[in-house]
Every structure is written in structure tokens, then in C-alpha cells.
Amino acid sequence: MTEYEQLASEVRDLAAQRDAVILAHNYQRPEVQDVADFVGDSLGLSRQAAATDAAVIVFAGVHFMAETAKILAPDKRVIMPEKAAGCPMADMITPEKLIAWKAQFPGVPVVTYVNSSAEVKALTDICCTSANAPAVVRSLGAERVLFAPDRNLADWVAGQVPEVEIVAWQGFCPTHERITAGMVLEAIDAHREAEVMAHPECRPEVVALADAVLSTSQMLRRAVESPALEFIVVTECGLVHALEKAAPGKRFFQPAPEPVCPNMKLTTLAKVRDCLRDLTGEIVVAQDVRIAALAAVERMVAIG
Ligand code: 13P
Ligand code: SF4
Asked: Whose CA is nearest to atom 1 of ligand 2?
């Protein structure tokens, strides 16, 4: 047995003893994805958290994702193998900054990307993920919306929903922001037949080069359904493992240097084992914040 096989077997035994479900984001390390019950994008994992019968949810991802699970499943114990795994984009807007911003636009509804803290969600009308942002904005029927914190996602949504004026907070994902159009053009040059899939957190000039702009799980579906045999994957490198499993025989390339989210990589298989054994890394959300954030998250989940 390899070290990973040994650890994976300990994790599965502990998960059974603890009545735990393991949710992992598509950017997690391959061995963490492989031990999980569900691997998915932010929206898919929120749905799994809301639907699970398990007593414990182990969230292998970043803090806002585990917090969203707790918001949707307050009676479950939600634990993170590595609580320090945050999202720098989520930290780019605070409740205080949001309150001041909203005050400049009285009556304008606020859409927040799930990549935000529970306190920020609690101050907003509706959440969205990369999988449903245009539908969420359309659902409001407003002429103008405030969109936080991702300016790149906001820019892409503005193109998809031209009838709505999007006022964007100027946050961004450092991992996606580092991907330049030049890097993507080099990959296209090297793989002329490949279909280009980009995450909407990429810069507008990178998004403009893509054949399809998709959430991570939408990329997985696209890789299976598309007749293309080669793909350029313009998002975090963890997704390539999930893609290779979902579409064996197809080939996946990335812009160089490969995009890495250091926070997503903080979770290791040993930490998954330790948190299941010790029940550490529990996520707590204050009840008043949770109720207010739940309203925004539930409105989103209802849209799909
Ligand atoms: P997805 O919801 O597309 O998986 O994206 C989450 C994320 O943090 C992307 O950087
Ligand atoms: Fe946050 Fe970017 Fe990492 Fe996603 S890839 S968790 S947006 S820092």
C-alpha cells in the first residue's frame, strides 16, 4: 500500500465512524478529490451540503465554501481540515466597506459572489456563483445592480446581461488575475485544435479568447460532451485531475506557468484524516448573520 492509499483508507474508515460526508472542491489536490464523496464547484457543493443526511460535513476547500455549507446546514457539524485556507478575493470586501458602498446607491439591489464572508452575504439581496451569475442578475428584474466582490465576473456578466447596468466592486482572484492573454495565446499556438475553456474570474482580455466561459463543473460537463479531443483549461490546475477522470482519452493543457491557488492546496490528505479523527476545524456562524446570509444563499439556490 502506498502512503496515500493507507491515508485514504484511514479517512474512509473515520468518515464511516463519524457519519461524515466529505465534500471537495474541483481545485483540491488529486488525492483529496479521490477520497471525497462529492467533488464539485461552489454551487454543486452548496447543494450537497443542503441535501446531506450525514452528521458531519468535512469541507475540503476554502473558508467561504465551508461557511456556506454551515449556513445551509446549521444542524450539521461542518469541519475544515485546514481552517486557514481562505480566499483573498473574499477578503477584498468587508461588511463596513459594503455598507458604505450601498449607501452611495440607495435602493439598488446587491448581488454577491459566494466568494465572500457570511457577514457580507448577510448584507446582500442574493448570492451567485460562476455557474449561475447571469441568471441571478436577470432574476432581479432591475435596471442596475451592485455586484461584489469580483470585477472580472461582473464584467463577463455585464456582457451576458446587457440590459442591466452592473456596478462592480473592484475585487479579483489573484490566481486567475495572473493569467495573461499572452499566456493563453501561447497555449493556443501550441495546441491549434484545442477548445479553450476559461473561468469567468479571468481578466476580460483572457475571457475574450475563450470558446466557452464556464464554472469548474460546467467545464467538466463540457469536456465530456464536446466533440473536441483537446482542451486548454484556463483556470486553477486542480481541475485538470477532475477533467482527466471525467473524460479519459481527452487531453488537457494549461497556460504556463500553471495557475495555482495556494489556499486550495493547504488541505492535505493527512489533514483530512486528522480533522475527522479529532473533529477539529469547526466552522461557526453567528445565528443572526446566518439567518440573513441564508436568505441570500437560498434565493440563489432556488434559481439554480
Ligand atoms: P467554481 O464555483 O467555478 O468552482 O469556482 C470557485 C472558485 O473559487 C473559483 O476560483
Ligand atoms: Fe479564491 Fe481564487 Fe482561490 Fe478561487 S482560486 S478560492 S477565487 S483565490
From this structure: 87
Asked if 200 and 65 sit in the same domain, the reply is no
Same structural domain for residues 129 and 278? no
Helices (H), the chain: 3-18, 30-35, 42-51, 63-72, 95-103, 118-122, 133-139, 151-160, 174-177, 181-190, 204-207, 216-225, 238-246, 269-278, 287-303
Phi, psi of 197 (to 5 degrees): -115, 125
- Distance of alpha carbon 29 from alpha carbon 299, whole angstroms: 31
Distance (angstroms) between ligand 2 centre and the Cα of 13 equals: 30
The total of structural domains in the chain comes to 3
pLDDT for the residue 103: 98
**Residue in the structure block whose three cell numbers are 492573454:** 181
Is 263 close to ligand 2, i.e. is its CB under 6 Å away?
A: yes
Residue 236 belongs to domain with CATH number: 3.40.50.10800
Q: Residue 27 is placed in which grid cell?
A: 481545485
Query: 41 C-alpha to center of ligand 1: Å?
Result: 6
Above 90 in pLDDT, residue 304? no
Distance of alpha carbon 156 from alpha carbon 207, whole angstroms: 8
The residue behind cell 493527512 is: 270
User: Ligand 1 centroid vs 204 CA: distance in angstroms?
Assistant: 17
On whether residue 259 sits in a domain, the answer given is no
Domain range for 137: 89-174+289-303
pTM passes above 0.85: yes
Residue 146 domain flag: yes
Per-residue pLDDT tens over the stretch 175-215: 999 999 999 999 999 999 999 999 999 999 999 999 999 99
